[in-house]
Amino acid sequence: MADLQYDVCIIGAGAAGAYLAKRLLHERPHFKVLIVDAGPSIPVGMDEVAFSCEQHGDTPYRAPQEGRFFGRGGTTSAWGASLVPYSRKDFDVEDALSTEWKSIVQDLDLSAVSTLKHLGFEGSDLLRQSFEVSEKIRRHPLNQINQIELQRNIYLPFTKKNFAWMLDELANVPGAQVMLDSVVTKLNLEDHTANSSKSVKSITIQTRSGDQNSITARVVLICQGAIETTRTLLEVAHQQGDDYFQWKGLVGNGLSDHISFPVANYDSDSTQKIAQVLAPSFVEGSITGTRMVPLSRDLPRSFAHVVFKQNGAAFTMAREMMYSIQSRKLPSIDVSTMGRSVIGLARFAKKRLLDGVLCIENGSTASLQYDFETPRSPLRRIELSEARDAYGKRKPSIHWSLSDIDLRSVLQRLGDVRRQFQHSLDVDCVDSLSGGEIALDNPYDVYHPCGTTPRGSRPSQGVLDEDLSVHQIANLWACSTAVLPSAGTANPTFSLLCLLEHRTIPSILRKLA
Ligand SMILES: Cc1cc2nc3c(=O)[nH]c(=O)nc-3n(C[C@H](O)[C@H](O)[C@H](O)COP(=O)(O)OP(=O)(O)OC[C@H]3O[C@@H](n4cnc5c(N)ncnc54)[C@H](O)[C@@H]3O)c2cc1C
Q1: Which CATH code, of 1.20.1270.10, 3.30.750.24, 3.40.50.300, 3.50.50.60, is assigned to 1-93+162-257+377-402+449-513?
Q2: Ligand 1 near 302 CB (within 6 A)
Q3: Three-state DSSP class for 308?
Q4: 491 Cβ inside 6 Å of ligand 1
């Protein structure tokens, strides 16, 4: 067993791990940083890295099986790359989480622009306006709907969608090392001499070929995605074998995600009308979209957006080309699609260059999609199973049920928002899906697990402190969307990166000073 020593060991090369590696080495180029990931260079699904989990409950939950990827770039190899911060709508909702949401939103206000810059956005207009909707939308009746606030989201450019680019940038940094196909199987703790806490003494890593290594690092950052991060902290608490960790009873509770429903479908004529206002637009080369956040205090936190279903040869070809570049495989495009796409591509170019918007081809359709968060409930949680996986580790046992939520009544109330949306755009839907028509027993979760490693100022109140450092373990941080109190009104990843930028990076640098 080799013995290797680092300043920082980052477990997980996904969004959080890659961002932290890039930023820490930018701030301190002399650091020795190891990034360990369970998966290969091109990320794969859970089964291919021999990870597994148990699932319990009366409602399907897809996030653990389908919503995470293992390897260089992690789940960003498959994500939508939509960036948007949480906002005051998250603490306007009157529930037990609003205080924590307020503190998070204050941090995001201070760090969103600098985080965008570190993600490679440079244009001054884009950074100044960042998440405000365009002047055109501000003047449209859509912006007068009193139950909705409009917000802009920004998409990462295609070449930066998979966060592996951040690791590529580190290729020539002498202190950076990436170790793939290597599963962290155990954090070994020792008593920390300076105070009464523990610290991570070493990390056990098992390679694909079965070899074991022991790593030591001055600080350890768990960046394994929400589910595996929660699992690792459950393992740490269990390993200790007593009630030493005051947060033991908190970790794993409060699993929250977005539930997603189409609530209206639009024909191709209505779709063209909607596209005149809401087609994704280009700002200084970056593509942006518009999202709607219902303001009602008695609704769960939610957001809505229009999904355009492009139905033309040009878009099919462009998408295939992009997927093939991203996955480094040959595109599967037939000659007739190529021929038909020439005129369409010219139309795309014209729209892009003259109007600054994405062309929604004739014949395309659209739907209005609602995503709302599941509230905290004992019905949704992560525990450790007694069963073991291929690495001899206890499997995560994921409990997910929606039986405490009256989905039909949520959708009926959201129906008012839909009617106002249609009125302001002067369109009708071909079907309005507000209850019976949609599969209430099989709602779609959106792969945004949150809530299971809460923050709190004391170890009895939260697993992590405000900087995402694990209470009672002096050199351990846990950086995943599990730190967010619930799924909230936005896709979670950008907000996580802002918290890392504003809270975690300064606290790690202080620790290593
Ligand atoms: C289809 C899809 C679309 C999405 N779209 C969006 C979107 O538009 N906007 C948004 O904000 N969010 C989106 N998300 C969610 C987003 O992808 C995640 O929030 C984000 O990728 C999480 O980043 P992470 O670094 O925490 O975890 P991950 O990216 O999952 O990375 C975790 C890494 O840790 C590694 N790992 C785990 N356990 C171990 C171990 N024991 N040892 C070593 N390595 C380990 C894994 O191999 C993995 O590479 C989407 C998700 C999906 C699936």
Answers
A1: 3.50.50.60
A2: no
A3: strand
A4: yes
